Q: What sequence folds into this?
């Protein structure tokens, strides 16, 4: 026997469909109104032709796009290397900060000192100190300024990520460790198999958020001397007297960030669903 | 409405025009005597200009006066690029060496509006529109050149030609003619480093993260002389971009401006300025890179 919805149920379906169509139409309508107002507000302003000419100039954009793109390749490579390193460093520091016992006190103090100071230190100054200070020591085998600048980024973001990881670790209820220990797992095993998997899953959205921030801050490497996307854009601005190259660089950075932002949103949504399903 | 006011407008415009045309030649006639169409020789009578001190030409500069623009901080010895230029201009104006008087004027006082104690001042003044609001400038007597500097230990310290800089890692400040000199003239194989300012570039040079940096010649002399330990000038790069221009400073609306400019133009025209530049700048520590 096939399922046939009752008269009443069909009415319910029809009502829901009408409601859905109505809300979509309303949303589309209000979006159109807001969008039109925004476009009119911006393009109708007295200075718009000049702004358009100096920030959204297609000819200038085309002229400096290759140079900015070439510089952007440096940013991409830097990000691909720095992000995993910063995550690893953050996780290590977080674990060190959560160690128990009086013997590990100095380790905890050092780890805490590191997170305090590098979260306070502006990244620009960290890059200056690393890229101009360390080569000044004139030690044998000092790495390239790009490596030093990258190290400044890794160490600064490692401090932020460490705090996020620590928050995750501490959000796992102590009873979980107690249960693990009672099963015969050592402290390390309990951390490795019980605490960290839960901790990382809980803090994935804020971690990814910090990674997105890192992604754009790799642009500060230009301070150390190499020509990255932002510096290439700055050179273009100086040459053309037009700000469009900055917009070109901005678009490239946004395009790079979009996939990561989409992943962050999906992870957040999944985490929220998982939580609710359990409740 | 229109018809009622039109005669008034036309009348007003005519009056204004008359006022302007009547006023403007007054200043000229003061300087050039009775007839405006007289030849330039009459406009600038040799050795008898309306100078601050009659019969003397008073030239200002700062104290201390730095090399290579002056020598031993004594402008009156005729040595150093600007001292030499000043005496050449004086000669063209009809003032012999004995009739030149030097006076000490600080840089800021010289370009500030207000009465001047000099006939003209020579102190590496860049000609800018902002400064033109307060003072007069002569024709430029020097176009600032870009210069490669480094430290003694660097591999390019002994370079004599642009080709020898090909493998060097060079640096410059962003958005400057110096950077343009690297990309347009030197064209090294290694990508240049670009810094927010000259101080960062200098630090990178001291650290050895770049082999040399490009700055303008006055900065090159200052950095190698006063700021860098073991700093050396590698050499001057051929003229590039829109160079900064140095001009003689005169009081705003000075009667001498035309005469001084004319003298400078003559010096440039007959090659005297080129010779002085070679003698006091190129041969005195900043050779040409060919």
A:
């Amino acid at each position: 026997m096939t399922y046939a919805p009752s008269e009443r149920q069909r009415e319910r379906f029809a009502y829901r469909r009408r409601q859905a169509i109505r809300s979509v139409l309303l949303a589309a309508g209000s979006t159109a109104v807001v969008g039109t107002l925004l476009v009119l507000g911006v393009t109708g302003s007295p200075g718009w032709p000049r702004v358009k000419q100096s920030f959204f100039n297609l000819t200038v954009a085309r002229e400096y796009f290759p140079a900015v793109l070439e510089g952007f390749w440096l940013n991409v490579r830097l990000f691909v290397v720095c992000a995993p390193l910063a995550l690893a460093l953050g996780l290590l520091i977080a674990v060190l900060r959560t160690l128990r016992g009086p013997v590990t006190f100095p380790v905890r103090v050092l780890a805490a000192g590191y997170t305090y100071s590098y979260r306070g230190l502006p990244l620009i100054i960290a890059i200056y100190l690393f890229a101009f200070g360390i080569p000044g020591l004139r030690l044998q085998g000092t790495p390239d300024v790009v490596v030093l600048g990258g190290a400044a980024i890794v160490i600064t973001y490692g401090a932020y990520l460490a705090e996020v990881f620590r928050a995750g670790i501490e959000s796992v209820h102590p009873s979980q460790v107690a249960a693990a220990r009672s099963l015969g797992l050592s402290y390390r095993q309990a951390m490795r198999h019980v605490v960290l998997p839960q901790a990382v899953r809980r803090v994935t959205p804020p971690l990814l958020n910090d990674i997105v921030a890192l992604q754009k801050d790799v642009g500060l490497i230009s301070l150390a001397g190499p020509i990255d996307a932002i510096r290439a854009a700055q050179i273009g601005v100086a040459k053309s007297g037009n700000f469009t190259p900055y917009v070109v660089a901005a678009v490239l950075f946004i395009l790079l960030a979009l996939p990561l932002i989409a992943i962050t949103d999906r992870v957040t949504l999944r985490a929220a669903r998982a939580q609710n399903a359990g409740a | 409405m229109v018809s009622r006011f039109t005669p008034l407008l036309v009348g007003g415009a005519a009056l204004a025009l008359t006022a302007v045309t009547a006023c403007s030649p007054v200043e000229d006639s003061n300087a050039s005597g009775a007839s405006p169409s007289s030849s330039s020789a009459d406009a600038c009578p040799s050795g008898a200009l309306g100078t601050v001190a009659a019969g003397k030409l008073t030239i200002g500069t700062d104290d201390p006066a730095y090399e290579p623009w002056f020598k031993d901080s004594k402008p009156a010895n005729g040595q150093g690029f600007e001292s030499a230029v000043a005496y050449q201009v004086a000669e063209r104006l009809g003032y012999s060496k004995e009739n030149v008087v030097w006076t000490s004027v600080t840089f800021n006082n010289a370009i500030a509006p207000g009465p001047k104690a000099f006939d003209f001042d020579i102190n590496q003044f860049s000609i800018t529109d902002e400064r033109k609001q307060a003072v007069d400038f002569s024709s430029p007597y020097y176009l600032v050149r870009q210069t490669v500097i480094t430290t003694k230990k660097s591999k390019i310290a002994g370079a004599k030609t642009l080709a020898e800089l090909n493998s060097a890692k060079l640096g410059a400040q962003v958005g400057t003619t110096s950077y343009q000199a690297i990309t347009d003239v030197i064209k090294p194989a290694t990508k240049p480093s670009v810094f927010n300012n000259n101080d960062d570039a200098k630090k990178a040079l001291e650290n050895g993260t770049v082999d040399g940096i490009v700055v303008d010649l006055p900065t090159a002399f200052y950095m190698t002389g006063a700021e860098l330990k073991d700093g050396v000038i590698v050499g001057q790069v051929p003229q590039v971009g829109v160079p900064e221009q140095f001009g003689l400073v005169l009081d705003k609306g000075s009667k001498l401006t035309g005469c001084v400019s004319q003298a400078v133009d003559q010096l440039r025209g007959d090659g005297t300025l080129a010779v002085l530049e070679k003698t006091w700048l190129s041969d005195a520590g900043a050779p040409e890179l060919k």
